């Protein structure tokens, strides 16, 4: 990867982290408590004690946490909000209204791809192997 591209991606990730932080501070205490309710969302970048107990799920949480950090994103703003099926999880950052579907290898913790939605008369899912691309291009 070219040096300029790396620099651009790092700056982009920092801007996403900044907007997440700023928006989180703007939320009311009640809204924050609703979002952070563990029955609705499971935090990725917080205490690993909050993660599910199964080995496969924990492995996938580690993978998500690692990939978010590798992309330069602060994993404490990201949550698993729905397990669509065994190999597809919906992750989101409610502070910047971003949602991404993560697909995993069957019976494995390795991430296969990211799916993000775009609007074109109806919601269309696009596939990428870049987490940062999925975050940038996803539309609420």
Protein described:
This protein is of the alpha+beta class and 140 residues long. It has one domain. Helix content is 39%, strand content 28%. It is built from four helices and six strands, in the order ααβαβββββα. It has helices spanning 3-26, 29-35, 55-70, 131-137; strands spanning 42-43, 79-85, 88-93, 98-104, 111-120, 122-128. The radius of gyration is 15 Å and the shape is globular. The model has no long low-confidence stretch (mean pLDDT 88).
Brief summary of the model shown:
The chain has 140 residues and is an alpha+beta fold.
Secondary structure blueprint with pairings:
Blueprint: H1 3-26, H2 29-35, E1 42-43, H3 55-70, E2 79-85, E3 88-93, E4 98-104, E5 111-120, E6 122-128, H4 131-137
Antiparallel strand pairs: 1-2, 2-3, 3-4, 4-5, 5-6
